[in-house]
């Protein structure tokens, strides 16, 4: 049964990392999962955290076919901070959505920790997004009905049943409060998103993306809607998360200064990757 | 968990949705009120019908009735065994009642019932519908001195004596005036003239006629019978036979009595002829001794009760040689909780239709059409009101679609955070469920309050509109009867809530099917 969830891979470290992912997927309901990177991955530096090969994606509107990605190959090592740049409409968001399993490629494969994830059943993808990936959007996308704290708690609520969540509600609230403290919103817990500024909302969104201890952060123009100062603040935050907690970050941007703050830049041109730096 | 908190938040922040379930609330309240009133009505009606009719009615279709009542009673006792609690014999015949009001003859068509004073009260609540309190305790066909219902102050012996005294004084006076006038004019003897002038107080000769003793000795009794001291055989009339119900100028409903206890009436009914002879009409004079008010107009306007022996004697239902009496029906009361239909079937087996021309019915069979009509009315009202709630369901559907469209981006976010489609769907389903619960819960409270204060509300409406909402002349109930059936309330709540849930299924499915990427791009 578990084999249908994940298909075998030819990667060298596949058995060790797959075992890890399988175990985690089997115990999707537990909050106790290693916050640290799995030993197997750290021991093998050549192992990519996420690897996309030959990715094709086109949108179809009636007879009109708009090809967006035309065979993207691309790998990111654990602990890397990568910026994806490209012209507007070049397919940056599309690529990020594919990596985050929000969409499926027409062709090509995506491997996470050595396991193919693009063809997983939707339940397993839900678990991946909930526990392994954190996502940040240009327009923050906080839920307007919920307070800042509740927004940050949302991934934990989604990942667990009522009983288990209720049982651990203090730990969850504590962790969320710590994260909000970290992003400088410790005093705004009960405020609704409407009562926050753009920068504050984006920081709350970062806290939300971190709450379940993801291995990878996917950020789609996190500073796109912010003024320079808030943008820099958000970037410093991402930078230090990457440095201090060894968090892998993939960030889409079209601001070259922002892109310059990343370890590495990947440029998308005409549906293909053009490596820079 | 997130489903609960989100649907709760949507409930708290989307008052438009609450507005959309007001129709559910009203529908539920109306359903509860209507069902309670209908149940109250039919329960009250059942209670009354059942009180008037006994559990089982065993009747002969022929005019002559069941020969040998005692043998039938014994056989029924054997067939029913322990279930039998009471049995009484009656003679029921169609009859014409006539009496005089201020010189005018009034006739009514009645259902004349001869009852056994000792046992009739065993099979039904007959006695409790009588107006004289003593008669309610022990039934008697003798006229009481006074003390009838407050509506009948001028009744009983007191009144009878006064009336006859007045009548005699009036006749004397008339005779004197006539004598002096005749004396002055020198006309014919006044006593001859009087017979044509005065309305005859009794056209049949003032005493009950006896078909078995048509001897000349009767004439002597004519002289002896003193209306002021004696009475004829008693008769108990249905209240509506003896009265007209009307409304005062100031709106009070009153019964105007045409005849009261103490008055004399005539009854004409068919005899039970020996075979080979045709039935003939038989008349006799009776004294009204009490009135009967069951508040079921069908009965109050047709029933007249007399002692069974008298009716048997007058109709010739006593065999002159053996003294064996026949009756037309036997009324049977069963042990409480006994299965009526089953007992009826046992009797039907004992008296098969091809050998005995008897009709054996339960009281429900007798009142089948009426009870069925009430039942059908209730059903139709329920269907109509549920349609109203269904219409409300479409309102909810539309509102929910709006909310789902409005929440498209949030749905995308939830999916990006790993919420499964089923979870997204259940946000909206539980939203619909809680709206339905709130709507029908409020409706239930409103409905129950309405039922509880229904008479006060009716009075308030009367005061407001100046029109009578509940007219006692129409319904024969002093107030609106209600009966809250818990099962009905539960079913209504379940029905209304499931309509709300059903209405949220489509929008919820739409939300669940939203593609996360498209939902996130949605602005
Ligand atoms: N649902 C869709 N149907 C048709 N075409 C689409 C759809 N979604 C995206 N596209 C097209 O795909 C291309 C890539 O879109 P995408 O959003 O990935 O670009 P982007 O690089 O993120 O641009 P930006 O920098 O403006 O955010 C665009 O040309 C867009 O028009
Ligand atoms: Mg984009």
Q: What does the model show?
A:
The complex is a heterodimer of chains A (277) and B (523). Chain A is α/β, with parallel strands linked by helices. Chain A has one domain (8-276): Rossmann fold (3-Layer(aba) Sandwich), CATH 3.40.50.300. Chain A is built from 11 helices and 10 strands. In chain A, the strands form 2 sheets. Chain A has a 6-stranded mixed beta sheet, with helices on both faces. Chain A has a 4-stranded antiparallel beta sheet with strand order 2-1-4-5. In chain A, helix 6 (148-159) packs across helix 8, helix 6 (148-159) packs parallel to helix 9 and helix 9 (198-210) runs parallel beside helix 10. Chain A is globular, with a radius of gyration of 18 Å. Chain B folds into 2 domains: 2-47 and 369-521, no CATH class; 56-162 and 229-337, no CATH class. In chain B, the strands form 2 sheets. Chain B has a 6-stranded mixed beta barrel with strand order 2-3-9-4-8-7. Chain B has a two-stranded antiparallel ribbon with strand order 5-6. By secondary structure, chain B is α+β, with helices and mostly antiparallel strands. Helices cover 53% and strands 16% of the residues of chain B. In chain B, a hairpin with a 5-residue loop joins strand 5 and strand 6. Chain B has 21 helices and 11 strands. Chain B has helices at residues 2-13, 15-20, 22-52, 69-80, 120-123, 133-137, 157-185, 190-197, 218-224, 239-242, 297-300, 308-315, 340-350, 363-366, 368-406, 408-416, 421-452, 454-465, 472-475, 486-513, 516-521, and strands spanning 56-60, 84-101, 104-115, 233-238, 243-247, 253-257, 264-270, 281-292, 303-307, 329-334, 358-362. The interface between A and B is medium-sized, with 32 and 25 residues.
């Amino acid at each position: 049964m578990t084999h249908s969830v994940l298909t075998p891979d030819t990667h060298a470290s596949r058995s060790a990392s797959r075992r890890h992912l399988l175990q985690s997927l089997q115990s999707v309901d537990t909050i106790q999962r290693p916050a640290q990177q799995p030993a197997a991955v750290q021991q093998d530096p050549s192992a990519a955290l996420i690897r996309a090969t030959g990715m094709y994606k086109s949108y179809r509107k009636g007879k009109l076919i708009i090809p967006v990605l035309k065979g993207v190959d691309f790998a990111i090592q654990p602990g890397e901070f990568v910026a994806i740049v490209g012209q507007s409409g070049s397919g940056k968001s599309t690529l990020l959505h594919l990596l985050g399993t929000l969409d499926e490629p027409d062709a090509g494969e995506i491997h996470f920790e050595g396991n193919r994830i693009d063809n997983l059943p939707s339940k397993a993808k839900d678990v991946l997004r909930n526990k392994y990936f954190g996502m940040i959007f240009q327009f923050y996308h906080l839920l307007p009905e919920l307070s800042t704290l509740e927004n940050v708690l949302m991934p934990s609520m989604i990942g667990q049943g009522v009983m288990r969540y209720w049982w651990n509600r203090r730990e969850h609230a504590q962790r969320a409060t710590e994260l909000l403290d970290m992003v400088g919103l410790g005093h705004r817990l009960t405020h609704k998103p409407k009562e926050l500024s753009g920068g504050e909302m984006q920081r709350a969104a970062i806290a939300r993306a971190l709450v379940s201890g993801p291995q990878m952060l996917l950020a789609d123009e996190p500073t796109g809607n912010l003024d320079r100062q808030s943008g820099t603040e958000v970037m410093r935050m991402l930078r230090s998360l990457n440095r201090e907690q060894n968090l892998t970050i993939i960030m889409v941007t079209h601001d070259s200064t922002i892109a310059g703050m990343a370890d590495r830049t990947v440029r998308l041109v005409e549906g293909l990757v053009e490596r820079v730096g | 968990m997130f489903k609960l908190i989100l649907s709760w938040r949507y409930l708290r922040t989307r008052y438009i949705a609450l507005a959309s379930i007001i129709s559910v609330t009203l529908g539920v309240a109306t359903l509860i009120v209507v069902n309670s009133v209908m149940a109250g009505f039919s329960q009250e009606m059942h209670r009354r019908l059942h009180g008037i009719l006994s559990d089982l009615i065993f009747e002969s279709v022929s005019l002559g009735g069941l020969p040998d009542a005692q043998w039938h009673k014994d056989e029924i006792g054997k067939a029913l065994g322990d279930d039998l609690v009471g049995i009484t014999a009656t003679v029921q015949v169609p009859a014409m009642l006539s009496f005089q009001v201020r010189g005018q003859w009034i006739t009514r068509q009645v259902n004349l019932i001869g009852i056994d004073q000792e046992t009739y009260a065993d099979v039904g609540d007959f006695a409790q519908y009588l107006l004289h309190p003593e008669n309610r305790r022990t039934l008697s066909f003798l006229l009481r001195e006074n003390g009838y219902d407050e509506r009948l102050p001028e009744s009983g012996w007191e009144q009878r004596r006064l009336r006859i005294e007045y009548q005699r004084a009036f006749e004397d006076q008339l005779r004197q005036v006539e004598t002096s006038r005749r004396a002055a004019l020198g006309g014919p003897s006044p006593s001859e003239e009087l017979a044509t002038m005065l309305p005859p107080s009794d056209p049949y000769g003032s005493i009950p006629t006896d078909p078995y003793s048509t001897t000349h000795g009767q004439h002597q009794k004519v002289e002896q019978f003193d209306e002021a001291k004696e009475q004829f055989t008693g008769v108990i009339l249905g209240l509506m036979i003896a009265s007209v119900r009307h409304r005062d100028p100031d709106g009070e409903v009153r019964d105007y009595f045409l005849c009261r206890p103490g008055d004399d009436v005539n009854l004409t009914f068919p005899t039970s002829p020996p075979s080979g002879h045709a039935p003939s009409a038989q008349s006799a004079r009776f004294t009204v001794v009490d009135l009967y008010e069951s508040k079921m107009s069908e009965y109050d306007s047709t029933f007249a009760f007399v002692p069974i022996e008298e009716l048997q004697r007058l109709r010739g239902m006593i065999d002159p040689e053996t003294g064996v009496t026949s009756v037309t029906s036997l009324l049977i009361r069963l042990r409480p909780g006994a299965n009526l239909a089953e007992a009826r079937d046992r009797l039907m087996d004992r008296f098969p239709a091809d050998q005995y021309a008897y009709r054996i019915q339960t009281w429900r069979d007798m009142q089948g059409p009426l009870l069925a009509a009430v039942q059908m009315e209730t059903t139709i009202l329920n269907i109509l009101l549920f349609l109203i709630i269904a219409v409300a369901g479409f309102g909810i559907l539309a509102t929910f679609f709006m909310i789902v469209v409005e929440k498209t981006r949030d749905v995308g976010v939830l999916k990006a955070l790993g919420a499964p489609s089923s979870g997204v769907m259940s946000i909206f389903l539980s939203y619909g469920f809680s709206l339905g619960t709130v709507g029908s819960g409020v409706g239930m409270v409103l409905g129950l309050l309405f039922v509880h204060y229904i008479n006060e509300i009716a009075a308030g409406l009367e005061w407001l509109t100046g029109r009578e909402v509940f007219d006692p002349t129409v319904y024969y109930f002093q107030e609106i009867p209600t009966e809250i059936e818990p099962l009905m309330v539960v079913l209504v709540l379940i029905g209304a809530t499931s309509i709300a849930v059903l209405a949220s299924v489509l929008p919820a499915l739409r939300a669940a099917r939203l593609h996360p990427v498209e939902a996130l791009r949605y602005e």
